[in-house]
Amino acid sequence: MRFPARRDATVLLTTLALTAACNDPTGPGVDPITELPRQLSTAERTLIEAGNGFGLELMRQVTQAEEGPNVVISPLSASMALGMTLNGAAGSTFEAMRATLGYGVLTQEEINTGYHDLLELLRGLDGTVEFSVANSVWSRDGFPFHDAFFQQVSGAFDAHLETRDFGDPATLDAINGWVSEETNGYIPRLLDGIDPQMVMFLVNAIYFDGRWTTRFDAGETMAWDFRRADGSTVAVDMMTLREHTVPTLRTEAFTAAELTYGGGAFGMVVVVPEGETTAHDLASGMDAEWWNSLTGGLEDFELARISLPRFTLSYGTTLNEALKAMGMEVAFSETEADFTNLSPEGDRLYIDEVRQKTFIQVDEAGTKAAAATSVGIGVTSLPPMLVADRPFLFAIRERLSGTLLFTGLVGDPTVEE
Question: Is 95 helix (H, G, I), strand (E, B) or coil?
């Protein structure tokens, strides 16, 4: 395990994580979930490990670039949207995207199968937790795409498919409306507009609503000073559990504890830096080795007090620069990207923007969280079209001499005289 250099202040880092076990669920009437309903396939295990590694590196990149105090991202949402996009990539673009996502030598078929099976597993894992994942693909009407691509993302990702007029304002409303519906209204607007060069949006939406296995007593919530990174303080509503046994890991750099939801299949791992270590120090060292060491070191331990601020955060960011830094730069190149598996015009297509918005609300009852990610596919220049669906002029000429024979204006082609 490695820890980064010292910084000057302490802030709270909250990471939402999926866990597969709970040793001490105490919620009334909730049966503990102590094992998965089936064994994970090799592809699923690789996909989960790759997704965790990708998500931790993405968190590290975004945190380093973020100037504001808070960061909330969804690794699963980002990897799933990009996983759909991967089906359209070819050549070096496919290799770069697959490597950045951490899929090693898995074939496209193995990756798709892993996503398909993982979707089924996550959606029905804990009946006491509301958890939904939805995917959609929105394509520009009139632009050529391969039918095989739509069949692959529809089958593997259960993706909703729509072909739309991207020049119609109703298309933007439809995409944002779909996202809002799939996130229970917590991400009401993912896209602000549709640029003329955009030909496709691949969108993922996630919604999570979990009640703590052991809920915080609202009567214990009190005003508390929260010390920000610059040393100043701000008053927060601090929730508290007393004399509670939870999976815990204590080191010189941090104290970590996991609070579970429902039957225990899902949990929130809270990592509070200790001493002169800061949350940004910890975030800068986040990788799969660090995370596996942390979660593998969690053991049941009775804590005299567990205090967590009640908070609600909305966050939005563009992931382009983070993904480029992680090795996916070729996919964003207007001259080098290869999406020939997406369209016969794929040598002119590229990823224009990967946008994500997130929401999280943590209170005494539990946690509500939502995320949506859009991968926007642009084209270097749209194929020129001529559609005479409005009044137009015409001229007939003799081409060698340039002599005009007829000219005219057609305002209504149904009127003969």
Answer: helix
